TrEMBL record:
Protein name from the UniProt record: Quinol:cytochrome C oxidoreductase
Coiled-coil stretches: none
Pfam families found in the cross-reference section: Fer4_7
Entries under SUPFAM superfamilies matching the protein: 4Fe-4S ferredoxins, ADC-like, Formate dehydrogenase/DMSO reductase, domains 1-3
Residue ranges constituting the 4Fe-4S ferredoxin-type domain according to the UniProt record: 762-792, 841-872, 873-902
CDD domains registered for this protein in UniProt: PsrB
Organism: Polaribacter glomeratus
């Protein structure tokens, strides 16, 4: 039961830490004097107040705070001279389009205001989903610092006409001499672009197209080619799975683009059945955190465990080695055989042989979950071809290079070889949206538009054909790569005309182009699935595959490194995006950094620590990491759940070229990414001098011993135990003592009730079972509500401004220290028990925002009535009335209010998107940019709810069922967040509010929130 678990956020909470105790009692950990409050940032950080000044300031405080709060920016507006016919001021337009930047692929809807894209949401009609990166990509459109603005040659501006003349002449010269030219691109997943590339290669037969993905999944594509005859990625219909076994495949993260929607659709406890998910991994991943059973193993042991599972399922005996988890393997083999076609095995090892073994297991059980017919096209990189190309270029065998959408100088592990070969080329052309090291090293730098300025098409899988359309006129002198290749091929057809003709003739089959463009996609139908037709034995001996796979793992010594991508930054393509840099990692809760994740046991043995300062800031020691002759100096972050003997390090950080100084954070891990292998053996780690300062929020908002914030039930209990049973119920209400009797807390109230049945009354339901912690809602809230970025230093001292946070809790079966004493555990045994839990804790994610309490404690303490409650259930903030006393934040038990310490807009100290004219284009005009000295927090997107009401009123109708939305509920891929009007009995949220899983956080306080949580259900006992 949830009440029997100890929940904690940081390993520091497992110790008797006076610092953590202090933080749990102190919301504002850094005192600030009045003179400093009224001064600038530099004054604030260095000021001190003498004791004899105290009385003087006491008389001045209220007036000064009021004065500061009333200061607001005056912005002059210039109206239209002639208003465009297709724009109505104050009314948003939505366009359907697709995103394909080489790493992230999504069918989306784009909100524009007065011709400016300001918000991205999933196109749910196209089964579209969005991640934090897809949500944040709209800010990259306005990146005036990094984006290329005009074509250049050797750093000097050149016209597009001269570009075409010179490059076509050079291409013809190289063709006549039959000198090899390489067109190097990332994965595009664009049928029309592939056809253009083919036609380009016909005109220039000496040109070879090579696809390079910075983060490789070439192993899976190679295995698919070997076993099924086509070089794509398999699809996985996890919504139909009964048993899921994953070996390091972070399929709720970036593995094959992610399967979070399908996964959650197969885990609905109200149906009576949930998939049983077991995760073998070394790093604590998003997928492992959501699993029913997480088994911690080093990467080399994952290899042997995978081979042993194959042996147990098939009865064969291919080469392997015994592991400590073989008992679990035998049980899983039985589960998989019982599940049969509803079972599936996945592996995240980027190794062809490992993928072949996983495919073979799926074939042996007749899995219909793995789909090899309707496959994925989003990772097409070929590691072997890239390696040969770099070797040839270094040897002087390549004469020309045209690169698009790649930055191999930054991402290749042997980038020095690439750079050396680049200097030998007769022609080097880089087509790119942003400036980077490869662009800088090339002779021609040709700017391409952002996907929101482009035409195009996509086909991420075999079923859905997506269309890309511009939502804004090009901001700079850019030209699409398709237009460029057509021009160089001698084809004068504009790309739009080419695309329309291609789609009409090849894809749409008589359907309307305009309809497809309006919808953003065209469904091509589903081919009959036949997932188990591959024949591994016809390709290579299964025993030979096993020998090759196990041979390298058997040679593993020392530490083992697992390279991975963070949910926020991915491959690093958007490293100059402040929304993503400040986005807290779902697992570690750290932002603005990458780091070496290490187990508590290894950290203790090697002398690494993460001391917590009295303001909640976390520090760390530096380590020298040596792999394959490469070394990096990286800070260490102790991570519960990390496999002993292994470490983890995120790719995508350490970029410096072209980035703002604030964004140049972390270390570049790509030099360690030898052969595109995410697992590197024989790693050595040495502690070096220095202390690193992390921007980590995991300790700053403690739960103050309230371990009933979360409620978790097993599927068996969910199905068999009454939820509100006084003794054993898994969703028991809070009880208090009243008149010497124990009664339900909700029956005792100090407040007068109000009639809430008139008009609308908004509730937000959050299903903890469906929430994977991905954080797309966090970035969506940033975009919709103009939430400022404050930078690493401010996050470090607890001044992050996120209106919505995703709390990550670890849980321990050992309860409080008092309970440990009752169990007869001494001090040493208690610490040992708690530390054992830290080796592999259970993880639960909980979105937390303003709870919009009907009996809100913030409202009673505000001396100027700046925070008030509406009949519709929203807790309002009148910014112009707020004087910044912060009483409301101190009285809020949920710690969801944020104080504006500074003006974050038009301030060089915070040189992010609100400090330049391009970045301001992303701001939502329906939401005010808050001034310094006021409180702010989640508004439950009041601008969206009011717009919905006004729209219905204008159209002379009632608001439709489920028409109300917020930014977070719209962005939620899994449907964990559902918003609506509980006074409309047909709205989904109405039934959810009355569901047996529904509960309020800290219900015994009787704040009566309008945010309802659904108890998390885990299939821990395979009910």
């Amino acid at each position: 039961m949830a009440s029997n678990k100890k929940y904690w956020k940081s390993v520091e909470e497992l110790k008797d830490s006076s610092i953590v105790e202090t933080l749990s009692k102190n919301e504002f950990v850094q005192d600030i004097s009045t003179d400093a409050f009224l001064g600038d940032k530099e004054t604030l950080e260095n000021s001190s107040t003498s004791r004899r000044d105290f009385l003087k300031y006491v008389g001045f405080t209220t007036a000064a705070a009021s004065l500061a709060a009333c200061e607001g920016p005056v912005i002059k507006s210039i109206p239209y001279v002639v208003k465009p016919d297709d724009i109505i001021a104050g009314v948003a337009d939505w366009y359907a389009t697709s995103m394909a930047d080489g790493y992230d692929f999504a069918n989306v809807l784009v909100k524009t205001r007065e011709g400016r894209p300001i918000q991205i949401m999933p196109n749910k009609d196209a089964n579209g989903t969005t991640s934090a990166r897809v949500q944040a990509s709209i800010l990259s459109l306005y990146d005036e610092k990094l984006r290329l603005k005009e074509p250049t040659k050797a750093g000097e501006a050149i016209s597009w006409t001269d570009v075409d003349k010179e490059i076509v002449a050079k291409l013809n010269t190289l063709k006549e001499a039959n000198k090899p030219v390489v067109l190097l691109t990332g994965s595009m997943a664009s049928p029309s672009t592939s056809k253009i590339v083919e036609e380009f290669s016909v005109v220039y037969p000496n040109v070879k197209h090579i696809i390079y993905d910075a983060v490789s999944e070439s192993g899976a594509a190679d295995a698919m080619l070997a076993m099924y005859g086509k070089r794509t990625l398999p699809n996985y219909h996890l919504q139909n799975a009964k048993t899921i076994v994953s070996f390091g495949a972070d399929f709720l993260g970036d593995f094959h683009g992610g399967f979070e929607k399908a996964y959650v659709n197969g885990r609905k406890p109200e149906t009576g059945n949930m998939s049983y998910h077991v995760q073998f991994e070394s790093n604590m991943s998003l997928t492992g955190a959501n699993s029913d059973k997480r088994i911690v193993v080093k990467p080399s042991e994952q290899v042997f465990a995978l081979l042993n599972l194959y042996n147990a399922v098939t009865g064969l005996n291919i080469s392997s080695k015994a592991t400590a988890v073989d008992g679990d393997i035998k049980k899983l083999a039985s589960e998989l055989k019982k599940a049969g076609s509803k079972g599936v095995v996945l592996t995240g090892l980027n190794d062809k042989n490992a993928q072949l073994i996983a495919f073979a297991i799926n074939k042996a059980i007749g899995s219909e979950i793995m789909d090899t017919v309707n496959t994925l096209n989003i990772r097409q990189g070929n590691d072997a071809e890239v390696a040969q190309f770099v070797a040839d270029m270094k040897a002087g065998k390549i004469a020309g290079l045209i690169s698009y959408n790649t930055d191999p100088v930054y991402t290749l592990s042997n980038s020095s070889d690439f750079s050396e070969g680049l200097k030998k080329l007769e022609l080097s052309v880089a087509l790119s949206t942003e400036n980077n090291e490869t662009v800088n090293a090339s002779n021609y730098a040709l700017p391409t538009p952002h996907f929101l300025e482009s035409w195009g098409d996509t086909q991420f899988d075999s079923v859905t054909y997506g269309l890309v359309q511009p939502t804004i006129q090009p901001l700079f002198k850019t030209r699409q790569v398709q237009e460029t290749l057509l021009t160089w091929s001698g084809n004068t057809t504009p790309y739009y005309d080419y695309l329309k003709a291609f789609a009409t003739a090849t894809i749409l089959g008589g359907s309307s182009w305009n309809t497809a463009l309006h919808n953003g996609f065209y469904s091509m139908g589903v081919a009959e699935t036949n997932a188990v037709s591959g024949n591994l034995e016809s390709v290579v001996s299964i025993s030979e595959v096993g020998n090759q796979l196990s041979s390298s793992a058997k040679k593993a010594t020392g530490f083992e490194l697992n390279l991975y991508t963070k949910t926020g930054l991915g491959d690093g393509k958007q490293a100059n995006n402040p929304w993503l840099q400040e986005f807290p990692d779902p697992i570690t809760r750290a932002s603005w950094d990458n780091y070496l994740t290490m187990s508590m046991a290894d950290a203790r043995d090697l002398g690494f620590t993460n001391p917590v300062k009295d303001n909640g800031a976390i520090d760390g020691d530096y380590a020298k990491l040596s792999v394959n002759g490469k070394e990096v100096i990286v800070p260490v972050l102790i991570q519960p759940g990390q496999a002993k003997g292994s470490v983890g390090l995120a790719l995508g950080f350490g970029k410096t070229f072209g980035l703002k100084e604030e964004m140049q954070v972390g270390v570049n891990a790509y030099p360690l990414y030898k052969g595109g292998n995410n697992i590197q053996y024989n790693v050595t780690i040495d502690k070096v001098e220095g202390t690193h300062q992390f921007a980590c929020t995991q300790v700053q908002k403690t739960i103050a011993g309230r371990h009933d914030i979360l409620k978790v039930a097993s599927l068996k209990d969910y199905n068999t135990v009454a939820p509100k049973d006084h003794d054993n119920g898994w969703n028991k209400p809070a009880y208090v003592s009243y008149d010497h009797k124990e009664v339900e807390a909700k029956t005792i109230d100090l407040w007068d009730e109000h009639n809430r049945e008139l008009g609308h009354h908004f509730n937000l339901s959050i299903d903890l079972t469906s929430c994977t912690g991905c954080g797309a809602c966090v970035v969506a809230c940033h975009a919709e509500n103009n939430v400022p970025v404050v930078g690493k230093n401010e996050v470090r001292v607890g001044r992050d401004m996120h209106w919505l946070r995703i709390d990550r809790y670890y849980s321990s079966q050992v309860e409080t220290r008092e309970d440990a004493k009752e169990l007869g555990l001494g001090i040493a045994d208690t610490y040992k028990a708690l530390e054992t839990e830290a080796e592999n804790p259970e993880v639960t994610f909980q979105p937390m925002m303003c709870q919009h309490c009907n009996h809100a404690p913030c409202e009673t303490v505000c001396p100027v009535a700046a925070t008030t409650h509406s009949r519709q259930g929203q807790n309002h903030m009148a910014y112009n009335r707020c004087v910044g006393t912060r009483y409301c934040a101190n009285n809020c038990p949920y710690r969801v209010r944020r104080f504006n310490w500074f003006n974050y807009a038009n301030n060089n100290e915070f040189d992010f998107n609100m400090n330049n004219e391009y970045g301001k284009m992303v701001l939502n005009p329906d939401v005010v940019v808050r001034s310094r000295g006021v409180m702010e927090k989640c508004s439950m997107c009041i601008q969206m709810t009011q717009a919905t009401i006004l729209k219905a009123k204008k159209e002379g109708r009632p608001v439709d069922t489920d028409e109300f939305e917020t930014a977070c509920s719209s962005a939620c891929t899994t449907g964990a967040l559902v918003f609506g009007d509980v006074n409309n009995k047909e709205d989904k949220v109405t039934a959810l509010a009355e569901d047996k899983r529904a509960y309020n956080v800290l219900d015994y306080l009787q704040t009566k929130p309008n945010v309802i949580y659904q108890v998390k259900v885990k299939n821990t006992n395979q009910a």
